[in-house]
Amino acid sequence: MNTELESAEQPNLPQNDSLPSSIEQEVINVLPKEMKGREAVSKRVTKLVMRRFFSGPLPPAGELAKYDKYIPGAGQQIIDYTNEEQKHRHLMDREIVSLQAKEIRFSLILAFIIALIFSIFAGICAYNGNNIGAGILVSATLLGIITKFIDGRKP
Fold first, then answer.
1. Cα(21)–Cα(89) distance, integer angstroms
2. How far apart are CA 70 and CA 74, in angstroms?
3. Burial class of residue 133 (count of CB atoms within 10 Å of its CB; 0-12, 13-18, 19+)
4. Contact at 8 Å (CB) between 140 and 121?
5. What is the pTM of this model?
6. Residues 6+ apart with CB under 8 A from 126
7. Model confidence over 78-102: pLDDT tens digits?
8. Poorest-confidence range of 5-9, 66-70, 125-129, 149-153?
9. Is the Cβ–Cβ distance between 31 and 46 less than 8 Å?
């Protein structure tokens, strides 16, 4: 088994990275006690399973330098792309807020017009002596408006 381990193609492992001793100790505890070179195997295994993650729009500066090493100018391209993406995202956010404000304004104007029309019809009904019809129109209008204000802008 040792010969397979030694003859296997060596992955390009980081040389200067060290893991916390607690992780190395965990790996040592999992390996059989009879195994020769347990510490060496555990260090190799822990380096094989170690990965780096980053979150955010840009990789760390060291990673950008590695990109530049293999593709000259790649780091700057990544930064430029990130800046353009951020500008686009901010533009879209402004556009969404603007459209939502217009939608709210349009909804309020439309609600006012509908309430006005119902009130006019209720007035016409009351003028012609149909108080029940006028009461129904006014009640329905007020009920709709009050319900909407209580519920808020739930879709």
1. 42
2. 8
3. middle
4. no
5. 0.49
6. 134
7. 999 999 999 999 999 999 999 999 9
8. 5-9
9. no
Report DSSP letters for 84-119, one per residue.
HHHHHHHHHHHHHHHHHHHHHHHHHHHHHHHHHHHH
Tokens 């009130």 sit at which residue? 119
Do you know the residue count of the chain?
155
CA 118, distance to chain mean position in Å, is: 44
Residues in CB range of 3: below 8 A, 6 or more apart: none
Q: How many CA atoms lie within 13 A of 54 on its CB side?
A: 9
Domain ranges of the chain: 17-51
**Residue 123 carries which side chain, given as an amino acid letter?**
G
What gap in Å lies between CA 49 and CA 5, rounded to an integer? 15
